[in-house]
Inverse folding.
């Protein structure tokens, strides 16, 4: 593939940049974190107005019909400003799978997403081992649909969502029933949403489910292959995190370069010490692979090509490389990094959040190792 | 666990443990409390430290290695190490006194006069908490660039300037202060080392919020603060050398503070609770943490020995601080990785009361405070390896010229 952006892609990127830069200055981000639970509703409206929430949703529903690469460019810009909006949750975890697999009735939700009125998310994390493909929530049949029972930790922005996509094991007495993804209304009786504090100050909530859902709330209808849907969703979820991480890291490096070039100690700018310059260069070297691996994975997914390896490579690098980058940037700010009135710590905390969400580097590495050691390399792709 | 103990050591350990059992509550690893993460918790912690210090003093355990003439017990460094090890198993801390006991006291023992050494007993009694007024906005790694001015007026010095990152200033009765007394001398040659009463008129303490949510450190503004001439430690304009004693001890203090915030057994216990001890990657991480903790213990013996002989700990303290900073950072990362999806939860939402998240986020206090990793590297290069010092543009110029019109 070609990693240069097309003219259209540059337009998307510039528009996104303009909105995030205009609406997520540091003071505003701080206020949203402290006083608004980590969700900037005004910025969300701006994104809707520019039709960026519908960027990659079908034109028939009012979206712009772009693909995953363009969506990643948008997420990258969000990461650059560590802007507090549930974009990844709503668009990647919720809207994309509904657009791809949803019934007509389910797809009707997307109009609300595009207009900015509806927010979505998915409950992917599992307690402990974090193996999203083995959901612990159990779905049993009822006369009118399903009953869901179980616990889902750290669901991103669940407290702001109108629907949560919940993967569940159907009738799993032995733990091996088929998987279904269910659209759950978090305000329904039988759902408890417990907001939790996260180190990164982003909104998360634990979900406890003991709730009936209608038959029509199973994603794609009664016979859809939930496991395939979940794999599809997870791949995009991981690539979305990589795009956010790329934005976080590139902006952190730029800020670090600027800071160390203006801060003088020992009569000269810090950046003229090789001990500083080499660390900044290391951070830069770690970031370039994040860009190419993310774009490669996004591009292949967008074109329907098999991408299992590419996604794991991208998330491995975004996790491992990304956390090293934010550590280096934090460190090069000296005492300033510890003062929360100064913005760099937020990049550090977001970077670590992105690193660990849906499996840190060692988890991706183990998966990739299994994949390439068991398949003949490349045979699957 | 104590297989290395000689008969003397074993006897001392038993004595210490018996006394601790009688006077303190054992730490319950599963109910472990995180370091203070709100202002109220921090105030309560400071108070608890003072109370415990009084108990130590009454029991004859305060200042274990300090000479008897200064109110100490006159003990051996290995005794202090064993006592610290045993004490870490109990729910007590003397953290609020770390500047006083670990940095100011050794400096006053070496450089103070008798009147100034009178503070030592008050520190041991738990009556005096001290802060370190060294760093300034323009003088961090380049501490000798500091610009807080002190001008002599009769038998008092009048001080004006701003300090920053001052840990614990809000709880302190006294501080050690570096100020510029000769702006026309090169930067290292015009600094004087003072003792200042934090209750003096003209001192304003403004808290700075840290990444861990708590105001651990502060900005301190000094406006026409008057300090009596008797409070100069050593000679006027000869404060830099004295500051070195303090800084070496600070490195030794930070490098030797393992076990204060967490212990490797606690980390292992947490990994067990998360059912992660079968994972070979986790097991290797735990083994590496254990190895580093052992190494730090052995290095600590050497550094404690020199301190107790009244000798500056030297580059060994920098080695230990740097090694400890890496240990701390690695433990923080391993801990949040073990917790997986829950690793980035905070405070009450996190397990162990958020202890491991605090450890993770505090790594920059360790890596930056007390001289950064890079500065320790420079010290090791110069003093342990004998490498030539990094060429410096401003070292020999009058400080006033390097600072433009600011002075
Ligand atoms: C938690 C905490 C508590 C503190 N408590 C106190 C206190 O009680 N009293 C007090 O006086 N001070 C205190 N400090 C201040 C501390 O000593 C300084 O923050 C530290 O010395 C670094 O200075 P700086 O923050 O200005 O960073 P800078 O000096 O600006 O350094 C920024 C970055 O540049 C790097 N760098 C600087 N010079 C060089 C070089 N020559 N070569 C290579 N790299 C270099 C540094 O390593 C760092 O990564 C505290 C700091 C922290 C974080």
């Amino acid at each position: 593939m070609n990693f240069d952006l097309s003219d259209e892609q540059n337009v998307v990127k510039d528009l996104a940049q303009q909105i995030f830069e205009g609406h997520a200055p540091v003071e505003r981000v701080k206020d949203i974190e402290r006083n608004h639970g980590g969700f900037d509703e005004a910025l969300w409206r701006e994104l809707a107005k520019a039709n960026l929430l519908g960027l990659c949703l079908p034109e028939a529903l009012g979206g712009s019909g772009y693909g995953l690469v363009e969506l990643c460019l948008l997420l990258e810009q969000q990461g650059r400003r560590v802007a507090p909006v549930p974009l990844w949750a709503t668009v990647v975890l919720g809207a994309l799978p509904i657009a791809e697999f949803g019934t007509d009735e389910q797809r009707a939700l997307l109009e609300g997403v595009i207009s900015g009125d509806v927010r979505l998310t998915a409950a992917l994390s599992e307690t402990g081992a974090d193996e999203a493909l083995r959901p612990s929530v159990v779905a049993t049949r009822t006369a009118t649909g399903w009953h869901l029972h179980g616990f889902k930790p750290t669901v991103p922005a669940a407290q702001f969502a109108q629907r949560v996509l919940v993967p569940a094991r159907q009738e799993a007495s032995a733990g091996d029933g088929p998987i279904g993804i269910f659209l759950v209304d978090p305000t329904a009786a039988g759902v408890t949403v417990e907001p939790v504090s996260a180190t990164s100050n982003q909104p998360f909530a634990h979900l406890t489910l003991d709730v009936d859902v209608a038959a029509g709330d199973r994603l794609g209808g009664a016979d859809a292959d939930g496991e395939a849907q979940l794999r599809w969703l997870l791949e995009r979820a991981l690539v979305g995190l990589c795009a956010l991480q790329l934005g976080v890291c590139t902006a952190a490096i730029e800020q670090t370069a600027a800071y160390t070039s203006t801060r003088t100690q020992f009569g000269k700018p810090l950046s003229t010490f090789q001990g500083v310059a080499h660390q900044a260069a290391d951070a830069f070297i770690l970031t370039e692979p994040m860009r190419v691996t993310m774009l490669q994975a996004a591009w292949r997914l967008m074109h329907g090509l098999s991408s299992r390896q590419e996604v794991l490579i991208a998330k491995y690098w975004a996790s491992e490389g990304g956390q090293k980058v934010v550590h280096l940037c934090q460190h090069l700010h000296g005492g300033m990094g510890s003062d929360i009135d100064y913005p760099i710590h937020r990049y550090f905390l977001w970077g670590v959040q992105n690193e660990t969400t849906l499996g840190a580097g060692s988890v991706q590495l183990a998966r990739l190792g299994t994949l390439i050691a068991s398949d003949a390399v490349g045979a699957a792709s | 666990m104590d297989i290395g103990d000689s008969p003397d050591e074993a006897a001392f350990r038993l004595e210490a443990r018996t006394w601790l059992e009688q006077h303190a509550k054992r730490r319950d690893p599963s109910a472990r409390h995180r370091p203070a993460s709100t202002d109220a918790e921090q105030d309560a912690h400071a108070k608890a430290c003072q109370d415990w210090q009084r108990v130590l003093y009454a029991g004859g355990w305060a200042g274990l290695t300090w000479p008897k003439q200064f109110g100490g017990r006159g003990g051996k460094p290995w005794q202090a190490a064993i006592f610290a090890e045993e004490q870490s198993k109990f729910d007590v801390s003397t953290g609020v006194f770390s500047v006083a006991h670990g940095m100011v006291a050794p400096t006053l023992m070496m450089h103070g006069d008798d009147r100034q050494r009178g503070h030592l007993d008050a520190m041991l009694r738990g009556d005096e908490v001290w802060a370190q007024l060294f760093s300034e906005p323009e003088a961090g790694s380049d501490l000798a660039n500091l610009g807080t001015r002190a001008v002599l007026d009769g038998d008092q010095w009048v001080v004006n300037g701003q300090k920053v990152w001052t840990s614990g200033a809000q709880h302190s009765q006294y501080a050690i202060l570096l100020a510029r007394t000769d702006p026309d001398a090169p930067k290292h040659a015009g600094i004087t080392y003072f003792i200042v009463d934090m209750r003096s008129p003209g001192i304003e303490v403004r808290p700075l919020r840290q990444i861990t949510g708590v105001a651990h450190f502060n900005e301190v503004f000094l406006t026409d603060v008057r300090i009596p001439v008797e409070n100069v430690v050593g000679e006027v304009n000869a404060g830099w050398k004295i500051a070195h004693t303090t800084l070496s001890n600070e490195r030794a203090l930070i490098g030797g503070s393992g076990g204060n915030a967490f212990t490797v057994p606690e980390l292992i216990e947490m990994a067990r609770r998360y059912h992660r001890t079968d994972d070979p990657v986790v097991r290797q991480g735990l083994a590496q943490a254990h190895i580093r903790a052992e190494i730090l213990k052995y290095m600590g013996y050497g550094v404690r020995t020199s301190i107790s002989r009244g000798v500056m700990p030297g580059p060994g303290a920098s080695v230990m601080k740097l090694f400890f900073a890496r240990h701390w950072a690695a433990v923080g990362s391993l801990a949040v990785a073990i917790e997986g999806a829950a690793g980035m939860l905070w405070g009450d939402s996190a397990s162990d009361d958020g202890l491991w998240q605090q450890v993770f986020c505090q790594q920059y206090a360790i890596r930056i405070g007390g001289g950064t990793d890079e500065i320790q590297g420079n010290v090791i290069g110069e003093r342990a390896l004998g490498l030539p010092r990094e060429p410096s543009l401003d070292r020999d110029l009058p400080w006033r010229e390097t600072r433009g019109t600011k002075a």
About this structure: The beta strands of chain A are 120-122, 138-141, 145-156, 163-170, 179-184, 191-196, 204-214, 264-265, 268-269. The first strand of chain A starts at residue 120 and ends at 122. Chain A has a mean pLDDT of 94. The interface with chain B takes residues 125-130, 153-154, 196-200, 204, 264-268, 273, 275-276, 323, 327, 330-331, 334-335, 337-341, 345, 348-349, 352-353, 356-357, 360, 362 of chain A (CB under 8 Å).
